[in-house]
Amino acid sequence: MPSKASCLYILTVVCWASVLWYLSATRPSSTYVGQHSFSQITFVRKDSNFSFSNIRTRPMNPHSFNYLINEPRKCEDASPFLVILISTTHKDFDARQAIRETWGDENNFKGIQMVTLFLLGKNVDNVLNEMVEQESQIFHDIIVEDFVDSYHNLTLKTLMGMKWIATFCSKAKYVMKTDSDIFVNMENLINKLLKPNTKPRRRYFTGYVINGGPIRDMRSKWYMPRDLYPDSNYPPFCSGTGYVFSADVAEAIYKVSLHTRLLHLEDVYVGLCLHKLGIHPFQNSGFNHWKITYSLCRYRRIITVHQIPPEEMHRIWNEMSSKKHLRC
Ligand SMILES: *[C@@H]1O[C@H](CO)[C@@H](O)[C@H](O)[C@H]1NC(C)=O
Ligand SMILES: *[C@@H]1O[C@H](CO)[C@@H](O)[C@H](O)[C@H]1NC(C)=O
Fold first, then answer.
1. Among 63, 76, 286, 304, which one is least packed by beta carbons within 10 Å?
2. Does any domain span residue 12?
3. Contact 144/90 with Cβ under 8 angstroms?
4. Nearest bound ligand to CA 51?
5. How far apart are the first and last CA of the chain?
């Protein structure tokens, strides 16, 4: 018969066993926790300077590309009234030439200094790079940085333009960013909108303002993944087919972009930067981001029209130039 004493004995043994088991089970893990927090502390201490300086000064989106072709002297000793930055692709030789010979001709306006520049990245096809290099040696109006030139990198092309203005042409008054399939009515842009005889504006931005939100349909050209942009609205932005701003905005956008996560939709991204800067884009109905069938009177009222192939660019330009005396 087990006595009370042996019962007590068994109970004690069980208790001790539990205590020992508990200690053996928890000791390694508590040691582990101790080591972990210790190593974390030393880690933080060792790197504290490093990580703090990172947070403050290291850009999230550094635009650290190199120029493959540059025209650093284009603005030297000059403060152009208007710099036109034209986003283009390598194979669009005809479009660039059409623009040079029509609305983009830097000598169109007597007494008003204008600079026209084409923006490119690096093509995967080296033959095209070499052809552009030769074109640049003739015209000296092309800027190329060494990012891969692609539709998804259009934002980099725009930022390259902003950086170029900030670095090499900060005394310019106004800047236009447009594409090589756009017809621009320069007369309207310069004399009606920007008015060379008035005091230049600052923190000014205008174009065809779009108030919209992300398109989540993957088949769309403007598809925006939710993880890249979770909000359901974009801040107001100007259609990338043509927008105009005072030159101070170029540097502001470039600087704020260094700390703004890159989005592949160039015009949306610029809108995001403007929002961070507290600059509101003005709506101007002269900027059309679609095609308008040519008629003299219609084209006299607009500032931009989209989808104009090179031959049509020449035709429209010649028409309008030869009919300057006609009234509408
Ligand atoms: C932290 O920065 C200060 C001042 O720049 C420097 O003197 C110190 O050595 C740095 N400490 C570490 C751990 O890098
Ligand atoms: C954009 O350019 C960067 C830098 O050259 C390159 O690494 C990346 O692949 C390009 N992205 C696309 C979608 O072409």
1. 76
2. no
3. no
4. 1
5. 123
In a domain, 232, yes or no: no
What CATH number should be reported for the domain holding residue 179? 3.90.550.50
140 is a domain residue: yes
Q: Does residue 61 surpass a pLDDT of 60?
A: yes
Give the CA count within 13 Å in the CB-facing half-sphere of 167: 13
Please report whether residue 309 resides in a domain. yes
Q: Is the CB of 153 under 6 A from ligand 2?
A: yes
With a cut of 80, say whether residue 20 has pLDDT above it: no
Q: Which ligand is nearest to the CA of 68?
A: 2
Q: Is the pLDDT of residue 295 over 90?
A: yes
Task: Write out the residue range of the structural domain in which residue 188 sits.
Answer: 67-211+238-323
Q: What is the DSSP secondary-structure string of 113-147? A: -EEEEEEEEE-SSHHHHHHHHHHHHHH--EEEEEE
Q: Ligand 1 centroid vs 39 CA: distance in angstroms?
A: 20
Which of the pair, 57 or 302, is modelled with greater confidence? 302
Structural domains of the chain, count: 1
Question: Is the CB–ligand 2 distance for residue 159 below 6 Å?
Answer: no
* pLDDT tens digits along 192-247: 999 999 999 999 999 999 999 999 999 999 999 999 999 999 999 999 999 999 99
